[in-house]
Amino acid sequence: MMIPQSHFLILGAVLFALGLYGALTRRTAIGILMSIELVLNAANINLITFNRFLGSPDGLGQIFALFVIAIAAASAVVGLVLVIAVYRNMKTIFTDKINLMKW
Amino acid sequence: MNGLIQTLSDILNNYGLRQEFAIRACFYSLAVLACIFGLGVVTLRNIFHCAISLAMTLFCIAGIYLFLNAEFLAAVQVLIYVGAIVTLFLFAIMLTAKIGDRSIRQTNKQVLASLAVSAAILSLFVSIIIGSPWKKAAADDTLRLGIGELGKALMSVYALPFEAISLILLAALVGAIVIGKAGK
């Protein structure tokens, strides 16, 4: 393997930081969900990298990366349906306009 | 004859070097592309372009998985993320009108603070990663997980989390239908 482990991990860290920035700054709920997908992918890269370099015999890292993908799909589905339900009721998905439960 | 073998091995050596260079170039260009498209996901104004950029990022990450001997994961990434989740995002964007207008501000007022927090966390991570003594290329290509091994492990050792994840998916499915159902 000619590419060192740290470079994969740095790529994961960069993607995580990008996703964190997006989740903190986006006004639309859909943008926040997309940023969360970036964060989950960064976690996946780390899982598979450690699986590759530490050598888990039965592929623990890859299997849990699969689980992360499944949970990301579930969270995206539920999140987007919530976004659509909120849009139907309030005609906006800007998170700073949705203040029904704030006082 | 000796000279011929010498030149042949020279060519092979050169070819080996070039192959290594090609692999490195592929990896780093994929990584840089993933970062650039990821930047697009979080900074572009038009949310539709953000979704396309997200699809490209996920493609690049699937390519990165290939460098980690995770071919099945790369296929799953393309199928589920690019095929299903990004499509879902595009549908949601099209169902909620007028958010892609250029006149509408897409970021809230915390841009500078978020930038500082993200940069601080990134620098912390990178400094930790660079400072840690990683093993030099531990398990070589001997440890190559095929789909068969993955499936066996999923059905034997990790059967419980597998069942849990199927339950979560079912709950998400039913919940999505219940929440998304129109009408009172």
User: What count of domains describes the coordinates of chain A?
Assistant: 1
- Count of DSSP helices of chain B? 6
Which residue ranges of chain A are poorly predicted, with pLDDT under 50 across at least 5 consecutive positions?
A: none
Mean of all residue-level pLDDT scores of chain B: 84
User: Could you say which structural class the secondary elements and strand pairing of chain A correspond to?
Assistant: mainly alpha
Describe the protein's topology:
The complex is a heterodimer of chains A (103) and B (184).
Chain A lengths: L4 H21 L3 H26 L5 H31 L13
Helix pairs in contact in A: 1-2, 2-3
Chain B lengths: L1 H42 L3 H21 L3 H25 L15 H21 L15 H9 L3 H22 L4
What features would you describe in this structure?
The complex is a heterodimer of chains A (103) and B (184). Chain A has helices at residues 5-25, 29-54, 60-90. Chain A is mainly α. Chain A has one domain: Orthogonal Bundle (Helix Hairpins), CATH 1.10.287. The radius of gyration of chain A is 17 Å and the shape is elongated. Chain A starts with a helix and ends in a 13-residue tail after the last helix. The model of chain A has no long low-confidence stretch (mean pLDDT 88). With 184 residues, chain B is mainly α. Helices cover 76% and strands 0% of the residues of chain B. Chain B has helices at residues 2-43, 47-67, 71-95, 111-131, 147-155, 159-180. The radius of gyration of chain B is 23 Å and the shape is extended. Chains A and B meet through helix 1, helix 2 and helix 3 of A and helix 1, helix 2, helix 3, helix 4 and helix 5 of B.
Brief sketch in words of this structure:
By secondary structure, chain A is mostly helical.
Q: Which short descriptors sum up this protein?
A:
heterodimer; A: 103 residues; mainly alpha; Helix Hairpins; 3 helices; 76% helix; B: 184 residues; Four Helix Bundle (Hemerythrin (Met), subunit A); 2 domains; 6 helices; extended
